[in-house]
Amino acid sequence: MQHAVQFTARSSADGVVERGFTVGEVPGVLWSPAAGSDRAPLVLMGHGGTHKKWPGMTGRAHRLVTGCGFHVAVIDAPGHGGRPRTAHDEQEIAALYRARAAGEAEGPIVVRSNAHLAARAVPEWRATLDALQELPEIGTDGPVGYFGLNMATAIGVPLTAVEPRITAAVFGLHWPDALADRAKRITVPVEYVLQWDDEHIPRESGLALFDAFASREKTLHANAGRHKELPRFEADSAVRFFARHLGRAVSPA
Amino acid sequence: MQHAVQFTARSSADGVVERGFTVGEVPGVLWSPAAGSDRAPLVLMGHGGTHKKWPGMTGRAHRLVTGCGFHVAVIDAPGHGGRPRTAHDEQEIAALYRARAAGEAEGPIVVRSNAHLAARAVPEWRATLDALQELPEIGTDGPVGYFGLNMATAIGVPLTAVEPRITAAVFGLHWPDALADRAKRITVPVEYVLQWDDEHIPRESGLALFDAFASREKTLHANAGRHKELPRFEADSAVRFFARHLGRAVSPA
């Protein structure tokens, strides 16, 4: 059964309209330009281990809306934000905390847990995209991008591999396990970020995932620093990447 | 003996003043903003196996001048452009052509030949910088950047390693041999570009040179494609890098 977008709240600031919505059980936020209701490209944005209105999400959304006039949509991943956790989710979170406390590698648990989340999140994203494209200001004929790091790369890579409406994607900060095979099916332009001194993801693992994308146009941005030290200018770079590939100019900040 | 800048020609177009100059025997070009004679940062730009007025140099210079208000200076490397070749230069060029004709690896010859050129070019660059800083519109207290790929990385890495006036640098497209030890002495912010499918420089070699820089702030940009397929947007990225580190905003193109 296809669900329609149900708007739940609306606010506006700095030229950006923010609307809460649900598609079935899945809550999301849609950011749009305040001026003009012309059709504009849509960027789907995934969050890491946080939720749809984490400040990093809001900040990136504002740059994409005010810089390029795009619509930007984010939804809560299963078990995140306002969404209930399953017993399996709770077990995985407990396993992660145990590994951290014991000083053991988080990678194997994160990879396994994210793969499980992605299997639930991919159909949710596709249903959300179906519903968003019913809105007159988005429509079915405009280009669509995907922007997500960490857990949102674990969801975005399999999503982009099966979703032909996504024509450009920014990924990063993940292991290749469970993703490299999907990446090999992706041919749209990709920008991939990794941290050169990531204490969780071995350098070779990040390079291997970048290498796996079949895209003729792909760019790796590797910055010195640890896992959480991704420089802020990479968000601006993502804006320019989407401007190039979804067909808009970037206005100065 | 210190030489002064001798200007040899002047033209102006699109808001950019272009002045030919010599410092001693070394010919160069200085591009400057047409409007305003306020002091502005200086970017030293090296050419690859071409010369000071190769279109790629002119194009990058115009972006730096019109985008950020910088001065940009380029000089002909020894044996390039209008400069005489030594018997050693001629031997190395012949060796390179023989290797190409025989389908042999160019790397060992290029590395050896560039190291020899760099030993001659580094003192020329330092003398040129001394002379340029005597100009009232540049001065001795402003920040200085270096931008050079290929052969200009072979020259720029040893130059930046010994020249404390250079406070940010863009390098790329070179082997680590003869350079990694110098790179280990560089601590200023670095942006490094490489081509993921470079048919001359093995991927691991490019990554090893990036890894060698001691800079706390360093960014690798690796793009899919062969040696000569560096995307044009990397020139814009270099402009933004210098704007961040030499202290100017970027105006839209």
Can you describe this structure?
Two copies of one chain form a homodimer. The first copy, chain A, has 253 residues and is an alpha/beta fold. Chain A has one domain: Alpha/Beta hydrolase fold, catalytic domain (Rossmann fold, 3-Layer(aba) Sandwich), CATH 3.40.50.1820. Chain A is built from seven helices and nine strands, in the order ββββαβααβαβαβαβα. A nine-stranded mixed β-sheet of chain A has the order 1-2-3-5-4-6-7-8-9, sandwiched between helices. In chain A, helix 1 crosses helix 7. Chain A is globular, with a radius of gyration of 17 Å. Chains A and B meet through helix 6, strand 9 and helix 7 of A and helix 6, strand 9 and helix 7 of B.
* CA distance, first residue to last residue of chain A: 41 Å
Q: Identify the strand order in the major beta sheet of chain A.
A: 1-2-3-5-4-6-7-8-9
What average pLDDT do the residues of chain A reach? 94
Structural class by sheet pairing and helices of chain A? alpha/beta
Weakly predicted, low-confidence segments of chain A: none
